[in-house]
Predict the 3D structure of the following.
Amino acid sequence: MLKRTWAVIQKEFIQTLRDRSTLIMMLSLPIIQLLLFGYAVDMNVEHIPMVVADQSLDAESLAYVDALVNSKYFDVIEYVVTEAEVIAAIDAGRAQAGVVIPPGFSAHVEQKDAQVLFLVDGSDLFTVQSGYRMASTIAQSYAGDVMLKKLQRSGLSMRSSLPIDTSVRILYNPDLEQLWFVVPNILAMLMQTQTIAMTAAAVVREREAGTIEQILVTPIRPGELLIGKITPNIVIAIINVVTVLAMGTYLFKVPFRGNFWLFSALAMLYVFSGLGLGLLISTIAKTLNQAQQLVMVMMFLGVVLGGFIFPRSTMPLGLYLLGYLFPLSYFIPISRGIISKGVGMDALWSNFWGLVIYSAIIMLIATRAFRQGLE
């Protein structure tokens, strides 16, 4: 048995090494994706071009505009007179945000009824999120500064006038570094993508080339053929995981707070679930093109429903339960927990058992379908 299995493993490694272009692509794709997320993709939008319609032009209105600019989230590119001109600038694409300050702003500030209209381009998701959040934060901060000055002029202290003193502490990522959020998710996504895609392609390619029949006339058994097929994919997946972890840790300074060996063990379990899913796709698809299309659909659904982009807790119950059909849903909390939080198995049992059950079921279904397909 070991001789036959080793012969298939050698054949698969030789075939993989001969296809240099595919091998280079499989090994370089994780690096390219991490570099793109690290340097090109920024979900925290800064220096948003802004148009200002200051109809007051007094000390308070100028101070408010300065507060927006000093935050580094907004850059004033143009001063106009009316709200219509602000909207026209956003429509034309010259600006992505605008602020309209009504006349008599200082007087209204003194009377505590000042209002400011802030307009944000709603066609850009990240601009809306960053612009809305920062505009609200700056407005609250500015209002607090105004209140503090009034209290100081009256001889009172700010602390004595507030019944609650709120202190916010952000755990695990106090500086809100984007890559600290991204790297654990990228690891989970890459491992799933590559294990599914490589396994599905390996089996279908044999069928398309007609070599699967030649293999079947040999003494090799379906289980041994299966082990030989997936072994090179496991090795490549391990290399990619180590590469992305090393780049994230040393190049982008993302801290790895947990136990590396625990992460490696759970990652291997996760790899098996992806191999099972890829094997199942290979039994369904008749051509390489069909396999690639099925892989793309699975990847899209997995990324959306698995919590890579959107939190699963906010999804409707039906979609939330549907997400459990994808191994990404189990491994993202594991990856985040070990890498970002440094937790151990005591905090990961539910996802661990979910991944064990999922891997066992998907491998059982896939191997049966694989054997039936060979027969």
Summary: Residues 160-166 have pLDDT under 50 and may be disordered. Residues 17-41+176-374 form one domain. The longest helix spans residues 178-209.
